[in-house]
Design goal:
This protein is mainly beta. The chain is 9% helix and 56% strand. It folds into three domains: 2-176, no CATH class; 184-280, Tick-borne Encephalitis virus Glycoprotein, domain 1 (Sandwich), CATH 2.60.98; 338-381, no CATH class.
């Protein structure tokens, strides 16, 4: 009787893969969730359900550098070109199994395509001067008692029910194989890890691991992943994007992203750093219009860590907007190439001519012609 009463208010779905499984609960209040499989993060979304079937979307999100290829949702994706100018994002992509290129931008951020009669959707999440974050998803309706492959993972639907009030789903998807699970279990049992918080206001922390100093910085974040840069005491740095719940090795240390958030123009990321014996003080260097450039002291063992609140280049911290060798210090803390004429701009320093008028870079030649006209005009008087 109780079971019949509950089924009148809730429809439930149970999906099981043919391998060992990881449980994930979804509902109309929380329709998406994440899992890890072979150190890859996947996201599952409950779309709809009936009394004998359910529609599920499975997807991955990854950042790819130009000329780099990565496997996303079981497909090989090559980023040919990426661009971000004046809030206009674009990316040219080549996907294995498709002859023509796919072009994504602000106006058309999504594209559907078929591979072996399977429908996929690729979406441009964000883009920079030399990298782009892409989302590849696949959605299918699965009948009770049958199985289908979604984003490279085999899943099976055991049962489905529907009511008009609330949606819920209990999903079981693949987990990592035994060896990887043991590795992660060993890390989680490491009592030397520290839970740290990185934010847009305080993006850097310093730690000691195996008697060596490391600087950990938040580069960027979304609602389900974060890009982290790790610099060791010799100055070697490495940067990676890590999805929520995933563990990655960066510059010889292990980091797990527990939770990320991007809201109200503020980034917040909670991470676990393994093997930490000591946390170091962090000193923030912020160049201003008077200083413009600050020398960054070399990082030494067991001393305070210095974080550049600007653009770090060759042990110097540059103020935002600083021009150097045809590049400028952008608000993403990297030097990027100045824009040519007729490109969108917001500030003079973004243009190779150093002149931005009405939101566009103006060529030096045009300015010279205008000045020459004025000189001739006043000489004629």
């Amino acid at each position: 009787m109780k079971r019949e009463f509950l089924s009148a208010f809730i429809f439930s779905i149970l999906i099981v893969s043919f391998v060992s499984a990881n449980n994930l609960d979804l509902s109309s209040d929380k329709p998406t969730g994440s899992i890890s499989f072979e150190r890859e993060s996947y996201y599952a979304e409950l779309i709809s359900a009936s009394d004998n079937s359910a529609t599920i979307r499975l997807y991955q999100i990854k950042e790819i550098s130009e000329s780099e290829a990565k496997v996303i949702s079981g497909l090989k994706v090559l980023l040919i070109k990426s661009d971000e100018t004046n809030f206009n994002l674009s990316a040219d992509i080549k996907i294995g199994g498709i002859e023509s290129e796919i072009k994504l931008n602000n106006e058309n951020p999504k594209k559907e395509f078929l591979i072996d009669d399977e429908l996929y959707i690729i979406e441009l999440v964000s883009a920079g001067a030399n990298s782009a974050t892409l989302k590849v998803s696949q959605m299918k309706e699965i009948s009770e008692g049958s199985s289908k492959k979604l984003a490279g993972l085999e899943i099976k639907l055991f049962s489905a029910d529907e009511s008009n009030l609330k949606l819920s789903a209990s999903i079981t998807l693949p987990v990592n194989d035994g060896e990887e699970n043991e590795d992660e279990k060993e890390l989680e049992e490491d009592h030397d890890y520290k839970k740290l918080v990185l934010t847009s206001d305080n993006p850097g922390v310093g730690v000691i691991i195996n008697s060596r100093a490391y600087k950990i910085e938040l580069v960027s974040a979304s609602d389900n992943s974060a890009t982290i840069r790790v610099t060791n005491s010799e100055g070697k740095n490495e940067m990676k994007e890590i999805s929520e719940t995933a563990i990655e090795g960066i510059n010889d240390i292990k980091i797990k992203v527990v939770e990320t958030d991007e809201s109200n123009l503020k980034l917040v990321v909670y991470i676990l750093v393994y093997g930490v014996s000591e946390e170091l003080e962090v000193k923030k260097l912020t160049p201003d219009e008077k200083t413009e450039i600050i020398e960054v002291p070399k990082m030494r063992e067991k001393e305070e860590i210095v974080v550049c609140n600007g653009c770090l280049l060759e042990e110097k911290c540059y103020i935002f907007g600083y021009r150097k060798d045809g590049k400028f210090c952008s608000d993403n803390k990297d030097f990027v190439a100045q824009f040519e004429s007729e490109k969108g701009c917001e500030n003079n320093f973004e243009c190779s001519s150093n002149i931005c008028i009405s939101g566009q870079c103006v060529s030096e030649g045009l300015i010279q012609r205008i000045l020459s006209w004025f000189r001739r005009f006043f000489r004629s008087d």
